[in-house]
């Protein structure tokens, strides 16, 4: 009786299956099974190779670079008469969103960014839109629960309607100011509306306290106060923190993880207030304790190089440095020669072309 050569794993599987079915190993039925198992394994390997090749081809066609940089834009108030350089007018905000849409950007939330869950179409670039300080100019709802005209949320929805595929999502780093609402019921309405409409809510501390030079206990307490402000109003907990004034505590990890009383936090990322695009979450440069953001501002004064207009110009002129999606959120696709920059734990998702 000739026996086909089988590997140890296949033999073990065969014995197990024989034991389960109660028949003796090595009868002719089993030989057939071995042959077909080997054929199946070969076919499966060929299928896997073909699938990977298809992914590589798709990534190459999209010029995917999921190790590239992502602009995280920082907005404050959106008001008709700006009183400081952080404010934008509705017109300026609309113009910037129109630019993003025309240049192939698709908004993702801060939570999606820090967790590497970037599900946008192939060839598109993620942008994270963030709002600090919970101003009513960002969100005000009318009596029916519709965003008031010229609020940031209304403008974002309006631009998304004009540009199919441009997701109307953003992250709100809130404080006790809570969009100008003072009662818990009204505050719950605001956060629930944001959550139900796909927006992301992050912690910006309760009282917008400067954490620089504070003790560990104080830092933990301030962050927990902000965390609880949110979780007391809605059931979903924040995933990210934006540091007030962009100032890091003396030990940077205190912003990321901590405990005060019976409440603890363990964030996916802590955001700063300047001055460069952020690294891909899949590269070694990504540092969850201090993620850079870009101030939304024209190329003037301090902003000649380090604010949104300047950086969007730079990313446009340097497409090889920008994050471009392959259209598959489960893979991390990139040109092969960029491989040394990738974080090892994402290796099983890699599609290098
Ligand atoms: Zn702030």
Structural class label: alpha/beta
Overall radius of gyration = 25 Å
**If helices are DSSP runs of H or I spanning 4 or more residues, what is the number of helices?**
9
What does the largest sheet look like? 6 strands, parallel
Q: How large is the share of residues in beta strands? A: 5-15%
Mean pLDDT: 92
Poorly predicted tracts of residues: 1-23
What kind of oligomer do you see? single chain
Question: What would you note in describing this structure?
Answer:
There is one protein chain. The protein is of the alpha/beta class. 34% of the residues lie in helices and 13% in strands. It is built from nine helices and twelve strands. The protein has helices spanning 8-21, 28-61, 90-102, 110-115, 152-162, 184-196, 216-231, 303-306, 308-317; strands at residues 72-75, 105-108, 125-132, 171-174, 200-203, 240-242, 257-260, 263-266, 269-271, 294-295, 332-334, 350-352. Strands 1, 2, 3, 4, 5 and 10 form a six-stranded parallel sheet that branches. A two-stranded parallel ribbon has the order 6-9. The chain has a two-stranded antiparallel sheet with strand order 7-8. Helix 4 (110-115) links the parallel strand 2 (105-108) and strand 3 (125-132). Helix 1 packs across helix 2 and helix 3 (90-102) runs parallel beside helix 5. Bound molecules: zinc ion. Zinc ion binds next to loops.
């Amino acid at each position: 009786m000739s026996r086909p050569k089988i590997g140890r794993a296949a033999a073990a599987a065969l014995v197990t299956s024989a034991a389960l079915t109660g028949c003796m190993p090595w009868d002719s039925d089993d030989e057939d099974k071995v042959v077909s198992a080997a054929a199946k394994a070969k076919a499966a390997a060929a299928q896997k190779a073909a699938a990977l090749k298809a992914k590589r081809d798709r990534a190459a066609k999209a010029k995917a670079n999921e190790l590239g940089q992502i602009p995280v834009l920082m907005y404050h108030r959106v008001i008709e008469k700006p009183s400081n350089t952080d404010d934008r007018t509705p017109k300026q905000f609309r113009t910037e969103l129109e630019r993003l849409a025309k240049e192939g950007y698709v908004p993702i939330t801060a939570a999606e960014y820090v967790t590497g869950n970037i599900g946008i179409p192939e060839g598109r670039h993620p942008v994270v839109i963030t709002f600090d300080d919970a101003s009513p100019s960002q969100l005000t709802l009318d009596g029916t629960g519709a965003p008031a005209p010229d609020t940031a949320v209304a403008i974002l929805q309006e631009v998304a309607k004009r540009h199919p595929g441009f997701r109307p999502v953003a992250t709100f780093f809130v404080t006790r100011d809570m969009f100008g609402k003072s009662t818990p019921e009204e505050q719950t309405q605001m956060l629930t509306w944001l959550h139900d409409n796909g927006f992301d809510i992050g912690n910006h501390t309760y009282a917008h306290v400067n954490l620089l030079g504070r003790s560990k206990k104080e830092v933990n307490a301030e962050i927990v106060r902000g965390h609880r402000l949110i979780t007391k109003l809605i059931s979903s907990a924040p995933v990210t923190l934006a540091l007030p004034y962009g100032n890091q505590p003396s030990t940077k990890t205190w912003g990321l993880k901590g405990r005060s009383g019976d409440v603890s936090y363990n964030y996916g990322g802590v955001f700063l207030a300047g001055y460069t695009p952020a690294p891909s979450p899949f590269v070694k440069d990504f540092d969850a304790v201090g993620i850079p953001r870009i101030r939304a501002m024209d190329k003037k004064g301090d902003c000649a190089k380090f604010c949104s207009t300047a950086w969007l110009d730079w990313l446009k002129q340097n497409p090889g440095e920008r994050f471009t999606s392959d259209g598959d959120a489960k893979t991390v696709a990139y040109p092969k020669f960029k491989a040394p920059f990738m974080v090892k734990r994402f290796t099983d998702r890699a599609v290098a072309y």
